[in-house]
């Protein structure tokens, strides 16, 4: 089988198939294969959140039409933001305490904390926190990691993945 170089999804009123072009400019078609489609809306180029999924559908093998689209309720939020505060005051408050504790413990570093949160069906499912610090040395880094892990265990969330990234702004 030739490895596809470029896929095209062709939707017509009577037929749905996947086509691709091989390096030899020969067109191949795979009629009646199962296909999973999503509609994705990209954000602006400089946005922190890359975009959102809007809807999904699955076309089983042998089918030629799309019966329905299912809404995808996955939303991404940044911290700090008013939209997160209005959606989930409790989580926003906990993240604000976390941010203030880290900034209080490391005043001399001028830390900046940004969070990316993902909600599915209204429930928090993923949290990523970036801690931006200029010119941090090894000792300060160890102390910052210890403080961050202690604060997360005390005030933040159970049962969701949490990723903390320490970023030296000057490297």
From TrEMBL:
Gene3D superfamilies: sex pheromone staph- cam373 precursor domain. It comes from the Bacteria. It holds the Pfam family CamS. InterPro entries: CamS. This is CamS family sex pheromone protein. The lineage of its organism: Bacteria, Bacillati, Bacillota, Bacilli, Bacillales.
């Amino acid at each position: 089988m030739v490895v596809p170089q470029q896929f095209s999804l062709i939707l017509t009123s009577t037929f749905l198939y996947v086509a691709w072009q091989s390096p030899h400019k020969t067109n191949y078609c795979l009629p009646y294969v199962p296909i999973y489609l999503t509609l994705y809306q990209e954000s602006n180029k400089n946005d922190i959140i890359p975009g959102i999924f809007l809807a999904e559908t699955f076309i089983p093998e042998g089918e030629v039409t799309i019966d329905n689209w299912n809404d995808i309720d996955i939303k991404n939020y940044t911290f700090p933001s008013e939209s997160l505060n209005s959606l989930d005051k409790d989580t926003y408050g906990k993240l604000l305490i976390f941010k203030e504790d880290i900034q209080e413990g490391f005043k001399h570093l001028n830390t900046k904390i940004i969070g990316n949160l993902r909600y599915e069906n209204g429930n928090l499912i993923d949290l990523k926190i970036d801690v931006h610090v200029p010119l941090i040395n090894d000792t300060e880094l160890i102390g910052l990691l210890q403080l961050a892990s202690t604060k997360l265990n005390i005030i933040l969330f159970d049962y969701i993945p949490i990723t903390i990234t320490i970023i030296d702004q000057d490297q």
